[in-house]
Sequence to fold (334 residues):
Amino acid sequence: MTQIAQPFGVRIRGTGSCVPERRLTNNDLTKLVDTSDEWIIQRTGIHERRVCDPSSEGTFTMARDALKNALDMAEMKGSDLDLIIVGTVTAEMTCPSVAARVGAALDAIPAAAFDLSAACSGFVYSMNIAQALIRSGQFRTVGVVGAECMTSIVDYTDRTVSILFGDAAGAAILTRDPDPRIGCLYSAMGADGRGWDSLYIPRRAQEIPANDIDNPIALGNLRMNGKEVFRFAVTKFREVIEDAMSKTGLTPESVGQVVCHQSNIRIIESAREKLGIPKEKVYINIDRFGNSSAGSVGLCLDQLWRAGKIEKERPFVMVAFGGGLTWASGVWRV
Ligand code: UT7
Fold:
């Protein structure tokens, strides 16, 4: 999907994020599973992750607060929104959507609202869809959120998933702009459902493939074949960034920030090194927040935005991949 001469531009008017206060350190995890601080840091780059208090926090509250922060930065109110999209695979309910509840909480009535399920690619997918709807003239102001309470679907006896995931939400307010040069210059999305069972959350026993039937993880929790996902990610991640840069003529010198899904430091580093992108252009926060699935790219974007690291002169790239298997990229000029 390529956008060139379009009637409207899209401006990012504000960003926001929300992470729970509670921290789960690697040393905390050693009390739950057979692992060590050294192993986790060396194999993933993670030191600690944030964890919702299930009695008062979750995907909905984080999505609401992240979007509120983004609205505050944009100096806008919920009633200014005409669409809310929440990328998530950890909605508290399948109906209504998290987006509809967020809309009600922020007085964004009668804004359209829906959740988008693309796992870790959820925020980038949602940004791509939102900007296309604005450019087409259908919507004027869209609130995009990636929110994930991963700890609600992690089995804390499984040392592969428990070390990796944390909770977070990130958000952005997109508005129609008269300057068509502003906004998303290029976006791509894809999926290969043949790999669905390398990362999945079964609700019914009959969905579980024969080779995973003996897996003791309870229904409703995440099952991940870490090695398979890792293999897919290392190649796909590099390909997706390469595609986005080549289609827009960007080089490691001319590109701004590359805002990556925080999957595993080794996956990000391998892509960065192969593409020759300088270290300072690839933001890393996985050490402090772990892998927060659809929450991660929005959280990174908000932290970069507030630190003044998203430059007007240089387009930035967002990139993510995850369950589905899915992947997505977007190149933006602000
Ligand atoms: O967000 C998108 C979706 N997810 C991802 O991107 C995750 C992709 N995958 C990964 O990040 C990595 O595969 C993991 C971090 C999940 C695992 O790291 P790995 O380097 O692929 O480890 P491995 O599964 O190849 O296991 C290596 C060794 C094994 O021991 P042996 O067989 O060599 O004796 C494991 O049993 O490490 C062992 N191991 C652990 N040891 C300590 C596996 N998990 C742990 C652990 N602590 N938590």
